[in-house]
């Protein structure tokens, strides 16, 4: 396991036993030896016998080749207490086992990696209690205590962190993160800080596996608490992600756009370093918005742009010509996505893109409505500075076409879809426009009024299901500036 922990889902060998348990990918000869090892494991008289049997199993079978039944047999024979004790023993420097600390850590981590492939085991309190030790291994590598000859005090002696051990550790953490309460467990045990230090030290696999794990944490419900608790650490991570993004080629950036929003802070985190990072990100995004890219890649680019707008508005986005182009591309996507024949289902990825386009449209509407109304020498940060009257009219024109597409889409919504979050997002975006625009598309708006009133009433008086939608809105809201209730009113 310690040597093969990275390979969690290997292909079933051609000579695998067809009678072997489901999920097993062992050959008949491997399974025969495994059965002998399991028998020795159950008959072990002491820890030395247990370790000998486990070492044979780890050499024989990578974690992903053990079926659920075999994992449970190992768990029943060993329990989670042994791998936890192995790690604690290694960190404390007890050598009663006779094995080097590095071997104890490697074996303990490999066992935990194997057991964590079973969902019923990964949530076990004993496994969760090992998270700080696993994190310490990823940050510092295997350590052991050594006596200093001069004063008798102990110091840590560090060895390099090999990839197999790092893979096992990340396997455990990723398995925990996948639990319903996993992100909370990791956040409470210092995962953000420790993983950040591992990345900053450029520890083994920290960029390949550590950064994505931080991204998974930040994509969960713990995101606001993580940023409130560790703002400086997460800004450091964002700086690394931004540097990687800015230094990548355009094709690589297109692939990276999907993950970029995961690392951006919620609104309210405003520092000079963040402002500089956002400016650098815009500089690297602009060529992507201006270039010819596939529909598959345009969606993540628009989502990333919308998230950057949430942080500093149009202030860092770029010159007026670029801002107008971004609004135009967002409006075109809305028209193409919503002006489909009745009954056409909008796929979730497209819904995600369109929701980002709504945010770009709203930001454009804010600046268009503020043009000419600002007498202060310090314009609002949401305004596109230097926008000419002609450009402002062009922006309003494409916005009108996009909001017309929203009206067209909402006219086809029946009551069974009232609790669809995408319907709510479309409704909210249109309401934001109606709050500012009182003259365009009057006939279309009047035709839609029965739906708007009925939809609002259903959520004000709907009770349980409507409350569920409100809860969803509070969880995914990018900004606290406009609640679901405000949009309904």
Give the tags:
489 residues, mainly alpha, Leucine-rich Repeat Variant, two-stranded antiparallel sheet, disordered N terminus
How would you describe what is shown here?
With 489 residues, this protein is mainly α. It has a domain at 1-144 and 158-229: Leucine-rich Repeat Variant (Alpha Horseshoe), CATH 1.25.10. 65% of the residues lie in helices and 2% in strands. The protein has helices at 28-42, 47-60, 68-78, 81-92, 101-115, 119-122, 125-128, 131-140, 163-177, 182-188, 191-200, 206-218, 223-229, 231-247, 250-256, 272-290, 295-312, 320-338, 348-370, 389-410, 421-436, 442-461, 464-476, 484-488, and strands spanning 143-147, 154-158. Strands 1-2 form a two-stranded antiparallel sheet. It is elongated. The N and C termini lie far apart (59 Å). Residues 1-23, 372-382 and 472-483 have low confidence and may be disordered.
SSE topology sketch:
Elements: H1 28-42, H2 47-60, H3 68-78, H4 81-92, H5 101-115, H6 119-122, H7 125-128, H8 131-140, E1 143-147, E2 154-158, H9 163-177, H10 182-188, H11 191-200, H12 206-218, H13 223-229, H14 231-247, H15 250-256, H16 272-290, H17 295-312, H18 320-338, H19 348-370, H20 389-410, H21 421-436, H22 442-461, H23 464-476, H24 484-488
Antiparallel strand pairs: 1-2
Helix pairs in contact: 1-2, 4-5, 5-9, 8-9, 8-11, 9-10, 9-12, 11-12, 11-14, 14-16, 16-17, 17-19, 18-19, 18-20, 19-20, 19-21, 20-21
